[in-house]
Design brief:
By secondary structure, the chain is mainly alpha-helical. The chain contains 13 helices and no strands.
Length: 278
């Protein structure tokens, strides 16, 4: 696998864990999402000015991705409202690598090397070891599972769409606007402009930066998926669970049990196997 694709996926993982921590640390999840939507829309407009519109052939993928992302953002925010980041975040990411690998095989007949497949399995197993908690609220687990299904769906749709578009910046420009603009309008409608502004006091820059960061991180991983097998790159991105566990323990002061650290070790081993595969 190209070293630059591996590096891109790992950088995307770190960015992803960071903005998830920012969302978890907020007070009003819907307002937080609205603030992120502002940052995401603005960066989408910048991308559009730089690269222009994507090829018409990619528009069905963009439309599908935007619909799936709305489900993703809704489920993720509900999950964080119901449970700990260390549980919700890891369950949400756990099923994606295996599902995307299967989906990529069905859609493109893409079969990664055996060592990569073993790495995907280790990453998935490790993520579930990190995230599974028998005492966690069932509502949190349910929202996390729905988030995971959405992650697998948009990961495959966007990876294929970016390949059709031929330009990842152009593809993600319209994808960012189409994803975040409905979220911003929804947040404004539910809270009202005055309450939306009041509830977001002191967090505007954090929220907007988190939204822009989410677009940057995903654009990076799409760039990697244009150069390497989709499934293993998705698995490498899910090493964000390692960064997420560290942030949850050190920054959010959540309790991360020894079993979860064992899961982190499995994720690291899986990522190493993917990186070594040829």
């Amino acid at each position: 696998m190209p070293p630059e694709a591996i590096a891109a996926a790992l950088v995307s993982a770190l960015i992803h864990a960071g903005w998830n921590a920012a969302l978890k640390a907020g007070r009003d999840r819907l307002v937080d999402l609205g603030q992120m939507a502002i940052g995401g829309c603005l960066l989408g407009l910048v991308f559009l000015a730089i690269a222009g519109a994507p090829r018409p052939e990619s528009w069905p993928y963009i439309a599908g991705s935007c619909a799936i992302h709305f489900v993703y953002w809704t489920a993720l925010s509900r999950g964080y409202a119901a449970g700990d980041m260390s549980h919700v975040y890891t369950i949400a990411r756990g099923s994606a690598p295996a599902l995307v690998t299967i989906g990529a095989f069905l859609a493109t007949a893409e079969v990664p090397p055996t060592l990569s497949l073993a790495g995907v399995a280790l990453v998935s197993l490790g993520i579930f070891a990190v995230g599974f908690s028998p005492t966690a609220p069932w509502r949190a687990t349910g929202w996390a599972a729905l988030t995971g299904a959405a992650i697998a769906s948009y990961s495959l749709v966007d990876a294929l769409g970016a390949r059709v578009a031929g330009d990842v910046i152009a593809y993600k420009s319209c994808g960012a606007i189409g994803t975040f603009l409905p979220i911003l309008l929804f947040a404004l409608a539910r809270r009202g402009p005055a309450q939306f502004v009041a509830a977001g006091q002191g967090r505007w820059l954090v929220g907007a930066f988190a939204g822009a960061s989410s677009i940057v991180g995903f654009t990076i991983v799409l760039w990697a998926q244009m150069r390497a097998p989709i499934g293993p790159i998705t698995a490498l991105r899910e090493t964000s669970v390692v960064f997420g566990a560290i942030i949850a323990a050190l920054v959010l002061k959540e309790t991360v049990a020894p079993r979860r650290w064992l899961g982190v070790a499995l994720v690291v081993a899986g990522a190493a196997a993917i990186g070594l595969a040829r």
